[in-house]
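Fig. S4 source data, part A: sequence.
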Amino acid sequence: MPAPAGRYMEIARQISLLAIGSFLALACSGQSSAPPDSGCGDRPSRPGEQLVSLDSESRFEAEPFLVARNGDLAILWEASGCDNRTKVGYTLAGSAGSLAKPQYLLSPDGQQASNVTAGWDSRGSLFATWASWTPGPDPERPSASPSDIRIQLVGWPAGAAGFGPPIELSETIADQLYDKPWLLVTQDDVILVTYSDLVRGGIWAASSTDAGQSFRRVLVDSMMANLAASCPDGRPGGAFVTYFANRTIRLAHTSDGGASWSQPQTVAGVASSGEVAYHDPTCVANGDEVWVAYGRTHDDFSMPVERLLAVEVAHATLGATAPDTVVVALAAGGAAATDDTIDGGAPAAYLITPQLGRRPDGSLVLAAYHAASEDSGASALVVTFSTDGGRSFAPEHTLASGLTGTVVRHVPNWLGDYFGLGSTPAGVGAAFVDNASGLSHVAFIDDIGRPATTQ
């Protein structure tokens, strides 16, 4: 199908391409505001935090993803390499060991790598997917006007020595521009990767029932859309996918491992609390129930990183035409609200990159960067919990402070479009960007705490 025309679609396409780029534009051109020691080399962690991405092969790192299963933990991220090539960094730990020295995955044919996600199957095999892309024509701004964007997948079979070579999941078409792959493994070991097609439009799903030996591609939604994120529902073949489409957040479900999908429904649109932000939504699910987190903003759609007035969480049930509960889980002013009303003014404070998780006891976990202003050190990573199925959220508390709420993409202290939040052997952990030094590195907290017994 041809790509739709119009100002909205062109802006959406351009912003999408910004999300695919790397830090290389500033790293190579000398425009970075990083401190003098911004060259490659290990640097010490800040007290109380474990920086897992520091390595002599990387200048700075962002967009970490965390996944654990049966005591095994993997953290992956986008690394700005000292060879002027972005790659996938990763570290693993078993149930009895610490996180290993970072290693790297490369895109085929010399391409760059961004937007990595991953998942384990029940046999202990690890799979990862990312977007590979060719830099633009300006050698000092390689992330401007990237081309030939593909979706790659690698597998590390249980018992093997490492990852195998990448295979391409996306269909080869003219001027291909795919974006934002998200991988999960269902309860019955179906590998499911969702992503967007910015040329023809639509959200696609590639699924494998044979441990990645073969894949089937299915169109989930033909609307021009992006920022797909998926979550398993805990049943064989069951998963939801949520994504941004025309200033709304949409949701679809599969019960057969991605072979077919439900009619997409809208779970968020225009409201008094501002427009739906061009931020990656995230979801968690349990059977027919699903919770979706997304942001509200008054910023213009063309702003590189929109500042969120609030993070809302919508609760929906499979088959319903609309969410049955929508609450403000985090508000830019600081106190968690219990309804959909936000001050109409643009506050000095703002939120960035919310991520949603769910504990084994059913409580919800929501974390985000909370900036008091754009000043250096004026931001923190905060978390809030819900013990009543998302009908209310507790006041936030701080996980890490002294950060900078950068609202410019691909600078050396960029926070990225997402960070890792999910189960770890210790509880629920976070792999996030610590940019207090002026350079972004991946920090890891193995357990962010538990909700209070009462709220």
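Fig. S4 source data, part B ends here. Residues 7-20 form the longest helix (14 residues).
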